[in-house]
Amino acid sequence: MGEAIVITSGKGGVGKTTTTANLGTALALQGKRVCLVDTDIGLRNLDLVLGLDNRIIYDLVDVIEGRCKIHQALVKDKRVDDKLYLLPAAQTTDKNAVNPEQMKNLIDELKREYDYVLIDCPAGIEQGYKNAVAGADRAIVVTTPEISAVRDADRIIGLLEQEEIEPPKLIINRIRKGLMNSGETLDINEITTHLSIDLLGIVIDSEDVISSSNKGEPIVMDPNSKASLGYRNIARRILGESVPLMSLEDEHKGVFKKLISIFSK
Amino acid sequence: MREVSLIMKKQLVHIKGTKEGLVLRLDDQCAYAELVEELERKVSEGGIDSKVDVQLYLGYRYCTSEQMTELIQIVQGPGKMLVSNVHSEVITVEECNHRMLENQCDTYVGIVRSGQVLKAEGDIIVIGDVNPNGRIEAGGNIYILGNLKGMVHAGVNGKENVIIAASHFLPTHVMIADQIEVMSNEQPMVLKNAEQLFAYINSDGKISYNRLQDFRNIRPLLTTSKGGS
């Protein structure tokens, strides 16, 4: 019996879909069987980020309305052999086509076959959110170091605490080291004390993420990117390993400065 | 025969003069209709020249609000007497429960997050933070053992002698009874030091803020426990 994790944020554009795609891929690379479920009915794009859009035949609404079997709708990612599957959202209807109970039954069925079921939640707190949360055992809240994203994360955590699931965990996405170190954005400590939930990991903002999303290849496939490391660490923490938090120190220090910092400790 | 008539003559409405005006003591054992009849008769007897304040004592009779207004109208009917107060020894269970709720103190452990509204009939203690856009509404006082960064409304039902206290006092909106204050730069006291402050309505009827140390001078009656000597 696997575990269903919903990835949500409240605010749009903070990186829910990117996080879902990358965590799913990272877990699959670790040898787990993973199914990604896109619940953003009407505005699907998890398939694009994974580069699986041209292989969709059936979708989530087809499964729920009984037009096909689950395994017919699942799209296999060939890059990670037989480990990663996507259940795409429908594009032609809207979020009201599905209700939370149907969603729960679907997720329960997927949990029997997969180690992890990652549910990509749409932005907002309406029907789509309710559908996405219905079948989940755990929740991950994604935020960025912006005050608006943190405010919406606070709201969504409040809503998640009303559900019968484990306390949500936090991912801080799109961290720009320079701005954070100079105090222009909220720092990690401020965000975690404000939201007072456990931090699952941080992901550093990188241009590679944008270009790889556009190519349809999750950034975790590229082991050299800082963002990739962030996602891999989070995946390892989900699997129960304890991995220290990535340092935000500037690595472009000269030798002289490094020496000074060693002596000043 | 004489005895019977004497018992019948037992006064149902007893009028007594005091410094504050007349006191009308109404019998609480007889039937309501009898009482009304007697009261109408007594009131119309006259003998009062100038306007006078009257206090009604209902004893252990329970009167509905309609009956209460009827009695008051009868007394004020001739235009000489003005009812200043109605005393009753009994209240309904419903009213009693409501009073108990108003006087009790609820405890909430956790964070009041954005979009959440926490309501209490009486006082409330929050052990945790109140985040921006979170809201607390209480009939009585609000005490927050944590960071107050949201909205607070004490004395929702119009009670003015209530206070809002927090260990870290940085709210966006402070409301007490029917007054509202938006926290902006005009509150230097609050901005300078947000530690252990409380808000209350001062003698000028304005919301003001003070250190928790001054609390006992401003609201000495709030202390309920004795001792400490």
UniProtKB/TrEMBL annotation, chain A:
GO terms for biological process: division septum assembly; negative regulation of cell division. Signal peptide: none annotated. GO terms for cellular component: cytoplasmic side of plasma membrane; cytosol. GO terms for molecular function: ATP binding; ATP hydrolysis activity. SUPFAM superfamilies: P-loop containing nucleoside triphosphate hydrolases (SSF52540). It comes from the Bacteria. Gene3D superfamilies: P-loop containing nucleotide triphosphate hydrolases (3.40.50.300). Belongs to the ParA family. MinD subfamily. NCBIfam families: minD_bact. This is Septum site-determining protein MinD. It comes from Lysinibacillus composti.
